Amino acid sequence: MLWTGLSQSLLHLAVWTVALLYLYSDCSGTGCSILSALQDLPSAPWTALRSKMEKHLQVISVLQWVISFLAMGAAGTVLLIYMFCTDLWVIAAMYTAWLIFDWNTPKQGGRRSSWVRNWTMWTYFRDYFPIRLIKTHNLLPSRNYIFGYHPHGIFSFGAFCNFGTEATGFSKKFPGIKPSLATLAGNFRMPVFRDYLMSGGICPVNRNSIDYLLSQNGTGNAVVIVVGGAAESLNCAPGKNSVTLNNRKGFVRLALQQGSDLVPVYSFGENDVYKQVIFEERTWWRLAQKRLQKIIGFAPCLFHGCGFFSSDSWGMVPYNKPITTIVGEPITVPKIEQPPRDMVDLYHAMYINSLTSLFDKYKTRFGLKESDILHIH
Fold first, then answer.
1. Is 120 exposed, middle or buried (0-12, 13-18, 19+ CB in 10 A)?
2. What is the pTM of this model?
3. What is the C-alpha separation between 266 and 183, in angstroms, rounded?
4. CA-closest candidate to residue 323, choices 234, 236, 251, 262
5. Where are the transmembrane segments (predicted)?
6. What is the pLDDT of residues 81-106, one digit of tens each?
7. What's the half-sphere exposure (Cβ side, CA atoms, 13 Å) at 136?
8. Calpha distance 147→328 (Å, rounded)
């Protein structure tokens, strides 16, 4: 009995050691080769343990991104300030000097890392929901593109997994196209977190950054904008198919000024991974949410998923509901440096029609009814 218990403990320890090596590998190093060798073992205990371990790794992979997004920036800032009050102040001063020197890098194409984008951790992230990327048309590397991503959801998991990592094989499906997911510019003022975001090819969603990518970075660039933004996240809920788009025309104007083609993108299931308390308009809570949104740049949503150890409890872990991202047909856009309003309205209407058609074409394949419609606000 003692020997059996000891053997099981050692097996657990070995498996988790390999798991940590494997999680941050890109399937070309030590972690991957060791796990591949262990997969060949015929023993039943290893098979059961491996299955359980994979499930835990999927949860950990998703949870680390949620916690990183919510807390890494604030934690990095507090740590940097604290280090100035310790014997490590020299390191803090050196990093601060680097931060000042590197301040404009996010607005000038960033600093993407193929190694980070190919971490094995992102495949566990993908498989937790799971997340799929479906290509409907070819994209020409000789053109630049603006992808409009819908809906926002709470954390835009589909947008991050498909365009901020290589877990769903974006570069293989769209050869010659380099995606850059745009997010809040305030995130790039946070120490450490800014570097984490840039390593995935994520950029600030501001005019300078997007202009640089579409005009000074050659061709084959695809800037991914979650068009609905924070306002849309306040209205997302399981089973709800609505996007905030009627008054969002800035991305269309930008596409015309740069001559970049517009590509509608819709993710079925993005709204299903969290449950949210949606407050009625003009209530005190909704007014407070909108006020905070204007101050801090994002909407403080009251949401919950499931617990780490049980899907029956409440927690920060999203529900493992499938997310399928459909990349639609590009809309060819001419280059007009000063597009008139009627031209912007024309291409905005074309974009809405294209997005609606994309939704209607694929909705019944991913759990919706023929009678379901896309509500555009």
1. buried
2. 0.87
3. 17
4. 236
5. 6-24, 59-82
6. 999 999 999 999 999 999 999 999 99
7. 18
8. 9
